[in-house]
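Hypothesis: this fold can be encoded by more than one sequence.
Test: take the structure tokens below, design a sequence, compare later.
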């Protein structure tokens, strides 16, 4: 008896001779639903008899078995990696449209698998074994997902492995192209962080005293800017608000006056970077768990003051409902904000250059709330994080589902009114 990769049981083929002299080859297979042996046949013309079943005949019989078992004749037995990958990407695209995954996640599906496809795209899907993937990852030397080849970072390799794992699970569990995933038993050489990597991880946040120093440097810089002074104030206030609330850049940039009040902020969507800062469009949040109500901390009156300042000073008539905009009404872009932060790195030489980005402010919030005694569950809910595995790396939190009554409480909070207050 022979057992195929997908679990199909076959007996050895045998032949009989028909009354007209043709040779008939038979192949018995086990039908699980009826718990019996069934048979498929292939007739060979008279004069072409063979003692051993020809390979082309056996392949035909095996294909007929699969058609019988899987109930459809188009069952793919020789799918290439590139063919299956196109199907997987189409499925992931549908998940973007239905809101299951973000556009950024789907973009990563493409970027992080380019090198894998160039290496294995022409392979038959079933021919890829764990040993091939292990050799591939152990000897990975360049990352071809970018225009300029370079060695992949540890995080890039982790993302690459994650995407390839999802692809093979799709082929295995959803399409039954393979009997098991070759990634299931894969063991990768453990990466030991270098001292510089530890330093970078530890440094990528601003502690309270560091944030105070940074904001003071910004205030001093504003005094020298004359006509640009107000836009510099706006950047500083956006930075301070992000530090106080831990939102992602896109979530903060997409905030509107209609989604904030004295109770906190309601993050329903985020700014789409595919749109322009002049004519911004919001899109769905990064994940479903990113949709949340973020209440202001009990000791945080500053966030309300910042929103109030923008409410009083946004008078351009452009993008009126958006909060964090320039004097001319255009949104403050991610690049603009990161460049502005980098402007002050020389004045804080004890911090790494990589820390002067907007996302560090999100890390800062998480660290600050952990120090204040918030539980991991509370922090996870506040930042809308969906991946609990990061608790053991950078983040110190796990996810908690927001309750519907939080939305009710949010709606009961009083609206903000123009009162006029300086920054």
């Amino acid at each position: 008896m022979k057992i195929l990769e997908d679990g199909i049981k076959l007996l050895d083929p045998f032949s009989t001779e028909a009354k007209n002299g043709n040779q008939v080859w038979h192949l018995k297979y086990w039908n699980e639903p009826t718990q019996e042996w069934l048979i498929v046949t292939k007739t060979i013309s008279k004069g072409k008899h063979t003692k051993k079943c020809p390979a082309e005949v056996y392949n035909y019989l095996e294909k007929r078995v699969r058609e019988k078992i899987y109930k459809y004749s188009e069952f793919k037995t020789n799918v290439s990696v590139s063919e299956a990958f196109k199907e997987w990407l189409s499925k992931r695209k549908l998940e973007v449209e239905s809101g299951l995954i973000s556009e950024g996640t789907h973009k990563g599906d493409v970027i992080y698998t380019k090198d894998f496809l160039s290496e294995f795209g022409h392979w038959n899907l079933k021919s890829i074994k764990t040993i091939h993937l292990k050799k591939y990852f152990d000897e990975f030397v360049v990352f071809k997902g970018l225009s300029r080849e370079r060695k992949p970072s540890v995080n890039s390799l982790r993302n690459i492995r994650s995407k390839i794992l999802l692809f093979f699970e799709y082929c295995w569990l959803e399409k039954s192209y393979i009997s098991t995933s070759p990634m299931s038993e894969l063991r990768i050489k453990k990466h030991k962080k270098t001292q510089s990597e530890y330093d970078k991880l530890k440094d990528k946040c601003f502690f309270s005293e560091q944030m105070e120093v940074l904001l003071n440097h910004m205030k001093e810089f504003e005094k020298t800017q004359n006509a640009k002074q107000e836009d510099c104030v706006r950047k500083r206030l956006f930075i301070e608000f992000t530090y106080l609330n831990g939102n992602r850049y896109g979530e903060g940039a997409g905030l509107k006056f209609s989604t904030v009040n004295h109770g906190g902020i309601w993050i329903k969507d985020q700014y789409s970077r595919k749109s322009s800062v002049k004519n911004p469009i919001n899109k769905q949040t990064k994940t479903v768990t990113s949709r949340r109500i973020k209440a202001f901390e009990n000791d945080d009156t500053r966030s309300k003051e910042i929103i109030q300042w923008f409410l009083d000073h946004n008078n351009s008539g452009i993008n009126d409902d958006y909060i964090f905009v320039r004097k001319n009404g255009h949104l403050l872009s991610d690049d603009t904000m990161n460049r502005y932060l980098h402007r002050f790195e020389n004045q804080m030489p004890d911090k790494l250059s990589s820390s002067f980005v907007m996302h560090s402010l999100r890390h800062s919030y998480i660290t600050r709330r952990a120090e204040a005694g918030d539980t991991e569950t509370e922090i996870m809910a506040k930042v809308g994080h969906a991946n609990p595995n990061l608790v053991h790396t950078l983040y110190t939190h796990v996810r908690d589902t927001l309750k519907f009554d939080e939305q009710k409480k949010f709606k009961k909070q009083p609206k903000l009114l123009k009162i006029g207050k300086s920054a």
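The longest strand covers residues 23-31. The chain has three domains: 2-70, 81-192, 202-412.
Hypothesis status: open.
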